[in-house]
Design goal:
This protein is α/β, with parallel strands linked by helices. It has a single domain, classed as NAD(P)-binding Rossmann-like Domain (Rossmann fold, 3-Layer(aba) Sandwich). It has a seven-stranded parallel beta sheet with strand order 3-2-1-4-6-7-9, sandwiched between helices. A two-stranded parallel sheet has the order 5-8. Strand 1, helix 1 and strand 2 form a beta-alpha-beta unit. Helix 1 packs across helix 7, helix 2 packs parallel to helix 3 and helix 3 runs parallel beside helix 4. The chain is globular, with a radius of gyration of 18 Å. It starts with a strand and ends with a helix. The model has no long low-confidence stretch (mean pLDDT 96). Bound molecules: NADP nicotinamide-adenine-dinucleotide phosphate. The site of NADP nicotinamide-adenine-dinucleotide phosphate has 31 residues, from helix 1 and helix 5. NADP nicotinamide-adenine-dinucleotide phosphate (NAP) binds next to helix 1 and helix 5.
């Protein structure tokens, strides 16, 4: 069988890099993306192509250059993403749009530009990296949750619309993993006169502690490899600690107010 060509958006760091390293070890032909190759002069794990998912021109040229090199894209992993925190009432609207541009519109545009090639190949797999946070409106992370939840939902639509062309789609929702996500995250400033000041400040501290003590992103790479090797992937997968994965089951079975109390006590990424 021919070596599968895999494109990972945001392959330069964290989860995307870990996925790329694992898939390369498994024998896949891996390409990652970054907004700026010059930022990673020593990166040698797999080739990096330039793409900013907020800029459709860069998406088109990146995919065109990969197709010129390999003539096919077997697996697309929409991994590039950013965090955003803030009280809903105080999060600047332009930052809401920026987060959605990266976490939602970006993956849509990447998919729309890869689908014609996959249709021509009569096969292809797209895995959208969402988040366990996308299944629940977390306090002070509502915009992040919403952007990831929106990606979960449209994946279901794409999945049914493209099945007839031999294309498969799924989502993988990670819990907390130790990456650089905190450094790229937009934090709404904690205003001294804000009614949310104390609660927001302590949530911010716990979010950072959760990421720092999160799992090894290599685990996400292993999960991705299993999904690629699955003949007929499920619509959705999760990866993370038992309690983070189990939180989704709890949401389904607990009365709404109980579940809310749990989230108020502690929330996952
Ligand atoms: N870490 C966690 O606990 C966790 C949990 C759930 C979900 N996730 C999701 O996992 C994915 C990877 O995050 P991570 O934790 O690995 O964070 P990370 O270490 O900050 O990596 C983010 C990656 O996204 C790329 N990126 C950011 N903005 C981009 C843009 N506009 N266009 C193209 N690429 C862009 C970055 O590339 P350059 O900066 O090189 O351009 C980088 O490779 C994200 O979708 C995140 O939401 C993470």
């Amino acid at each position: 069988m021919k070596t599968k060509v895999v494109l990972i958006t945001g392959g330069s760091s964290g989860i995307g890099k870990a996925i790329g390293i694992h898939l390369k070890e498994k024998g896949y032909k891996v390409y990652g993306t970054t907004r700026n190759k010059r930022k990673y002069p020593a990166f040698s794990d797999f080739p990096l192509l330039e793409m900013d998912v907020r800029n459709v021109e860069t998406i088109r040229s990146c995919i065109a250059s990969l197709l010129a090199l390999e003539s096919r894209i077997d697996v697309l992993i929409n991994n590039a993403g950013v965090g955003i925190t803030g009280p809903m009432e105080e999060t600047p609207h332009e930052e809401v749009l920026r987060a959605f541009a990266t976490n939602f519109n970006g993956p849509l545009n990447v998919m729309n530009n890869v689908l014609p090639a996959m249709r021509e190949q009569k096969e292809g797999l797209i895995i959208n990296i969402t988040s366990i946070a996308g299944y629940m409106g977390l306090p002070y992370r509502g915009i992040y949750s919403a952007s990831k939840g929106a990606l979960e939902i449209v994946t279901e639509s794409y999945r049914m619309e493209t099945k007839a062309f031999g294309i498969k789609l799924t989502t993988l929702a990670p819990g907390d993993f130790a990456t650089n996500i905190a450094s790229g995250r937009y934090h709404t400033p904690v205003h001294d006169d804000s009614p949310y000041k104390q609660a927001y400040k302590s949530t911010l501290e716990s979010i950072d502690a959760d990421v720092d003590s999160g799992g090894n992103p290599a685990e996400v790479g292993e999960k991705i490899a299993k999904i690629i090797e699955t003949k007929n992937p499920k619509p959705h997968y999760r990866v993370g600690s038992f309690i983070q994965k189990f939180s989704l089951t709890l949401k389904g079975i607990l009365p709404g107010r109980w579940f809310e109390k749990l989230l108020e006590g502690h929330s996952s990424h």
